[in-house]
Each structure stands twice: as C-alpha cells, then as structure tokens.
Amino acid sequence: MDPRWRNAVLLVIVAVLLLAGVxxxxxxxxxxxxxxxxxxxxxxxxxxxxxxxxxxxxxxAAVQQVYQGLVNYNGSSSTNFSGxxxxxxxxxxxxxxxxxxxxxxxxxxxxxxxxxxxxxYTFYRxxxxxxxxxxxxxxxxxxxxxxxxxxxxxxxxxNNTTAANAxxxxxxxxxxxxxxxxSEIALMETPNQSFQVLNASTIELNVGxxxxxxxxxxxxxxxxxxxxxxxxxxxxxxxxGNLTEGVPNSYLATAMLGxxxxxxxxxxxLPGGGYSLRPDASYWGRSAAAAEPWNNxxxxxxxxxxxxxxxxxxxxxxxxxxxxxxxxxxxYIGPATVKELQGKACVVVQALPTVYGSTSGxxxxxxxxxxxxFNNLSVRAAIAHSIDYHQIIQQAFGxxxxxxxxxxxxxxxxxxxxxxxxxxxxxxxxxxxxxASPCANGACAGLTIKYAYLDTGIDWAETAQFLAADLKAxxxxxxxxxxxxxxxxxxxxxxxxxxxxxxxANGGPFYMGQEFYTSxxxxxxxxxxxxxxxxxxxNHCMSQYNNATVNNLVYAAASDSNSTDLTNYYSNMTSxxxxxxxxxxxxxxxxxxxxxxxxxxxxxNPMASAEPYAFLFNTQYAK
Length: 623
Description:
The chain has 623 residues and is an alpha+beta fold. It is 33% helix and 17% strand. The protein folds into 3 domains: 57-239, Dipeptide-binding Protein, domain 1; 273-286 and 296-356 and 591-615, D-Maltodextrin-Binding Protein, domain 2; 357-589, Dipeptide-binding Protein, Domain 3 (Dipeptide-binding Protein, domain 3, Roll). The strands form 8 sheets. It has a 5-stranded mixed sheet with strand order 8-9-10-1-11, sandwiched between helices. A 5-stranded mixed sheet has the order 16-15-19-13-20. A hairpin with a 5-residue loop joins strand 4 and strand 5 (97-102).
C-alpha cells in the first residue's frame, strides 16, 4: 500500500475512534449523570426510622442500611442465613434454645460498644414498645419478670405482666449496658427468660414464651432478620427521651445511629424530601468483611446514596430515562410503565422470579361470609367460576402476573401441597352454581354491592371493570369504589369494636373487595396467621372466615418442624379454604427490578426492601 494511503487510513481510523470515544462519553453521561452519590427515586415515605417501630417497606429499606441484627438472609437466598452481628450460632436438639456468639470489636458509628447486654436491651425494648411489628417476636418471646421458677409468658396474668413491664422499663432506662454491674448482669443471666445473657459475647434465645407456646419454631432466623431485632444503642435512647412503654420515641423516628455500613447525614420526611446515607468511615466491619468476602451483609459501603421521595411515576420514569437516578422504588409498577421503561436504552427492567411478586403482594377478592349473599357457598362458587382470570392477566396486567391458590403464596415453603388447580373460568359451572343459590333466576339483580379496590394504577381499575362485567353475567351487580392504601389498612381494622368494612367509611360498607398481604419474612405461617386464622389482619374484617380446624392448623404448623406434618397441615388448610371458596385467589403480579444499565453490585433478595430488591446499597456502585 502506498504510505500516503496508509497514513490516510490510519487518520480515518483514529478519527472514528475519537468520535466513538466522544459518543461513549456522551452516552455514559446520558445513562447516569453522576455516580457518587447514587440517587434513588422512592415513591413512599418511611413510617418511622426506629427499628423497633417501623412496619412499612420504605421504613425497613432505610433502617436496614444503618442498623444490623444477629443474622440476615445470605445473598439472594430466602432460606439460608449469614451471621451479621453474630459470628456463629447453635440450636439445641429440641429447637428451644439458640445460642449466638457475637463478633468482637463491633461498635456503633459513635464509638459506643456492642455486646450481649446491648442485644438483650434491644430485644426487650422492642417488646415493650408494643408497636405493629411486636408480634414477630411475640410468637416465641415475651417480657421478663426475672423469675426463673415462674417466668413470664404471653399467657401470664395481665396484672403480673403490667408490673413486670414497669420494672423492666425502669431497668432498661437506668442500667449501663456498656458496663453493667454484677447485680444487673445476674438479672440478665437469669435462666428461663426469653433472652438470656450467657456472657458479654454470648446471648441465648429461649423459644417458648410467646403465643406459639413451648414449641420449636422453624423460621426463627427469618423472624429475627426483621428490623425490630436490630441492635439499638441504649445511650442514644437514654439521651433522647428514654423508653416509655407503648410509646414511640420521637427522636428515633427521624434519626438513625447503628452499627451498619452507613450513617444518616440528612432526613426530610415530607413529600419531595428524602434522606442521605454516607459510608461510615469508622465502620467496624471492614476486617470482618475482608475475611468473609461472600457475606454481603457486612461489606462496607462503596458510595453515598441519596434517596428522594418522588411519588410521581411519570417523573421517576423520566429520571431513569435521562440518567438522573441510578434506580427507583415504585409503590406499584404497572404494565404500561414496564413497557415504557423497556424501551429505554439505558434502563434495565428485570422480571424477577415469582417469589419476589409473592413477597411484595399476592392478591385476592374477599367476600364477607356473614353477609347476604356471600353467606351462601354456591354464590361464592359462582363468583369464583365467573371470573375470566386469563383476561385479567393478559389485558389488565399485560401478561405480567400469575394466578395462584392460597393461603400460602407461590414459591414459598408448603405452597399448595395438594397441587390444586387455580379456580377456573367456567361460565356454565358458574350458572349452575348461581341457580343452586338464593340468587337464582336474577333474585340478586337488584342488589348493588360496593366493591373496594386499591387505586394504584389503571390495571386494578381495569380488573374491577372486568369483574363487574363477569359478575353481571350471573346476575350480581358490583359498584367498584377506588380506595387508597391507607384506607385499605383502615378497612382492615376495628373501630369501636366494629369492622370498618361494615361502616360507611371511605365510601363503604365494603362486604366485597380487593385484598392482599405483603410478607414480613419468608415463612408460610406469616401468611396463614394473617389470611387464614380468624383474627388475622387480612381476614377478620374481610372474609371473616372462622373455621376452628383451620385456626388450629395454623398454630400447629407454626410450632412444628416436621416436614411430613407440615405438608399435611398446609395441605388440609389449603383444601378447606379452597373448597369453601373462602377467598377468590386472584393474581400475583410480576415483580421487576429497575435500574440504570451502569449500576452494578446489586444483590437481590425477595425479602429485600431497598430498591431494586436489595437489602443494602453497600455493594452497589456505578461506572
């Protein structure tokens, strides 16, 4: 080749490479405008930043960045656990005693030490707060009276409990848990209490004092992975209002100081506000993390994270598209938003396994069995078989949902052990059932039934419209009424002894409506205690299903670790509710992880609250 041509070709190649380099830089800038801090749009605001009080997804998402517990889920597993503040643990042969050996050198971000005494304080403080998540611990544990021969339990006399709680609250407020004296240590070492200190670096959890009674609990590690078991610095509580039994601490509600990889540097709990998480320069876990590189729960943080409370789906979608945010937390992401984001060059939209959707929310239709016409089995059966589930999934959810059989959600332990088929769309059977009911021959056509549905997106509005059309075909008229999430929670509760669903509140009464449950931790009994047992939050004021056999099976299953027994328990529960048409099990929407294509280090877990489905931001980085 002529040297002149060769040089010309080289110049062209260089020019092309330079242009390509410029293009890549521009593309990178558009995909993510900044890498430190990472910015996250979050649709919902935490209910509290106190790990003993928070009982919402955004609250857990924030708390888990700053506070730590004894153990937590290992990577993406929902059944295996890694030690966090605990180095290791052992379980007694009968499953009633769990000994946790704590890591050495752990301290809070202010330098205050962590030890078994602090963990003992944390557990009992959480119980005395008597807030929403208290039930997670009260399944197996209860307050203490320091009486080894006659210990306090969930079923103790109320007067004895009240007196013991007052003494315990005073102890928690007055002892020095960094360096307790001999008499205080002796009380914390008292046998036969829920949480027993063995020495400064070992604590024993004694199962059997909660409402499940003296029985092992299969999902104990999952239950103490919840934030209300996370270590709280007694000195911080003492300096900011102390502990008052049953009363939230106003300081800890908006401030955080823990042992975790982040410190909270800013918080504004108003719409449009947010919070900033800064890596803790003195984080205790650096050496431990180097020795356990596989343990993501103790790794130090890479970058600062700024979470912005942004409730507008349109704004969040645009923020992702133009690279303003690295990831997003949607209260609910519908098919239209999914398809829009899937068309963005710099955005990853990842459909996750069904267990993620199960954990986020599995949905059903409740029918109040105490109210006409839902007190008739044939009416409930007719409704179940009149619904075109395929139409709802394909048209309302764009195909991003699956039908299920409750009460345990898909991909959970002991889901539908009998492999019962989901309720079928069978117009002929629906007509046969309705003709065998009090609604035969159009007898219920003049009865308009208000149907409450969650107003989170067009998909649920379309679902309500499809339901109205389907039920009209069997002579039942429903009037869909949109309600907010807070109103749905209100509907689940009692007001002066009366279920809100039975009143005119929020446009009711609602003897029929849309209901769902979101997991506190992955276990089948977390669901059945809420949607199958009579007093459950997602049953009592909704379907009001009260079956003594099912009630007993719920607690028998929660206190049994034998897999054969559990298969039988959950099979019977599922079959009894299925054949009773207790609830019309509807759909499990597909969960999605949404983030910038330049965001790396995301470790997803179905129980994770930070987005996109991550426990911690600590391993995340952008480049």
